[in-house]
Design the sequence.
């Protein structure tokens, strides 16, 4: 009998499912990767900024993956109003609002200026009142002005004061620093939570790929290029330590962000994003096992995220348990559906763990 | 009449011309780019480690570009002996020996361990005695061991103590830190040369592309990926300041390193190297002009390098002057010869300066 671990009803709190053919390819792979609950990013073209669009998008996803629970988000922009937040909350149309600094990643051109969030304070207030989470892509846009010096390597660290200020100004707003990549970010989240015995207000999601990558791995391998970029060895170690710590303010958000292979295999303009969805839990299991911390995996992919997001049993469309099974599998070089090809993270490699689902 | 600047007999002290069809394509473009003297890298497969191979390679290059003066180099490896250096010097077969740390860039698998050069000290001694230059690819191989922390962003800075030790151990050996990319490297070269009124023993070559790029520019644009990688805004500024300073220990070495476009447009295993040869001087002119320092360009591309390398008029196969002409030109998207395609630096862009040759 192979070794198994019951991970329960798992959650991935940062998922890109796109639209069209890509949506058709990747949406069913949420469950393939061992994930039951998926928190869906709104950076479509145009972005999701209305209740109708959120509900209609969710309906399309649900049709493609009937056993997956989808939580929807708005894209923070000037189209959002406090009234819209109140209405969306009443209808349970969204669980959160995602904030993209303008120009830092895929489809972020309509994002906001992270140097000044004050125009959005009425929206944040409405979110705080309605228990809607704020999801931050925590990077400052690059600038090579002398004295400013913002680039992909320090863009996250330089964003952290803005996170702290938002928490100070909205102490009851739940905020997630998404896909954090630096020791500085981990330290900031720890500091905010020191001595807190009440509900967690500020947390960070951590991807699978940032537990494996440093800058060297995307230099010359665009398959590993994402935003925020993977940083230095000491940053990777801090992320692994946080993910495997059992601390409730760190939880899984894959930021799985698929692109057609031709958008990754180009000498110019490679799209940022790493596709991990179809093997999400096995990728994580590999890292947790290497640290001798497999017993902490369930907390990271289940308890912490669901607790932070107040996800209740009655919100779930399916209550099957994800079972991690010690069974080797090969990672395909490419995943193909019709004329669409996507290269998965660690394409061509091997993983020690596989996924099964157990109906209760 | 357009503005013109006579740059005299120019030199590019770091050139990759490859073999086969790539050699046939790029060798004539040395002159297209405004360069008269080209210092040729030995990282062929197998590398250049014998007098016969150096002379035979030079002959092939000369046939393709009769007006270009070629200076040849050996690849530092265990095949080199002091006797071979003495013999090569006597025959004027080589001007320098290039040292590649194992595994850091294209065709460097046979390179040396930069943590310990002592095995090569007899070779360095022979080079010192024979006025043969040591060309250093100044990077430590990456390591993510805790406490070591070597990655593409700090690999050059961590190499600098090895440079200083070599200079201390061989004070009369002329050493070039090739394609330097960091403020730390510039500062080290400055410090070594402070107060020196004699011959320059330690210099640095600077590429055209590192005067334009930072880490953001190769994140997502493999056309801009090279080793050493472009670093941070403050590093770029230090390089520009050094190149335009008129200080004689900084000179031009393009490190133009062509690859077929399919080796740059891949989602995995992109080859390191930027092709600048065909527009080398116009790329530089753009940067120097932006700094209001065009009057320093001749020193950078002519006097400093030729002086450091002891290049004399009688060594030249042609004495035409390179004339910089203020005349806009478009950079092609791709350079094609038969079935070989190479994407040039800043493909599809524009340059304000062109090149003409004046026979004397």
Sequence:
């Amino acid at each position: 009998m192979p070794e198994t671990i019951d991970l329960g009803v798992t959650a991935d709190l940062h998922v890109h499912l796109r639209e069209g053919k890509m949506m058709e390819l990747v949406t069913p792979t949420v469950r393939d990767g061992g994930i039951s609950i998926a928190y869906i990013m709104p950076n479509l073209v145009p972005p999701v900024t209305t209740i109708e669009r959120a509900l209609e998008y969710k309906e399309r996803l649900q049709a493609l993956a009937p056993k997956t629970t989808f939580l929807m988000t708005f894209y923070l922009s000037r189209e959002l109003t406090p009234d819209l937040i109140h209405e969306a909350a009443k209808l349970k149309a969204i669980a959160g609002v995602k904030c993209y600094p303008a120009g830092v990643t895929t489809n972020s051109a309509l994002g906001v200026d992270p140097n000044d969030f004050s125009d959005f304070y009425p929206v944040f207030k409405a979110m705080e009142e309605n228990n809607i989470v704020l999801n931050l892509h925590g990077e400052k846009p690059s600038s090579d002005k002398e004295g400013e010096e913002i680039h992909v390597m320090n863009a996250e660290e330089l964003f952290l004061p803005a996170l702290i200020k938002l928490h100070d100004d909205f102490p009851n707003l739940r905020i997630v620093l998404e896909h954090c990549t630096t020791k500085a970010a981990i330290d900031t989240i720890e500091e905010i939570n020191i001595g807190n015995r009440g509900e967690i207000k500020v947390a960070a999601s951590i991807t699978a790929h940032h537990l494996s990558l440093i800058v060297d791995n995307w230099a010359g391998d665009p398959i590993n290029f994402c935003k925020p970029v993977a940083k230095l060895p000491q940053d990777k170690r801090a992320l692994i330590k946080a993910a495997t710590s059992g601390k409730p303010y760190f939880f899984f958000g894959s930021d799985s962000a698929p692109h057609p292979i031709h958008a990754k295999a180009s000498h110019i303009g490679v799209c940022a994003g790493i596709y991990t969805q179809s093997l999400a839990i096995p990728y994580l299991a590999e890292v947790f096992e290497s640290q001798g911390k497999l017993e902490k995996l369930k907390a990271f992919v289940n308890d912490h995220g669901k607790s932070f997001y107040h996800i209740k049993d009655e919100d779930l469309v399916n209550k099957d348990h994800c079972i991690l099974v010690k069974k080797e599998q090969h990672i395909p070089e490419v995943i193909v559906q019709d004329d669409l090809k996507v290269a998965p993270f660690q394409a061509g490699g091997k993983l020690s763990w596989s996924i099964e689902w157990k109906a209760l």
Observations:
- Residues 164 and 192 of chain B are 8 Å apart (CA to CA).
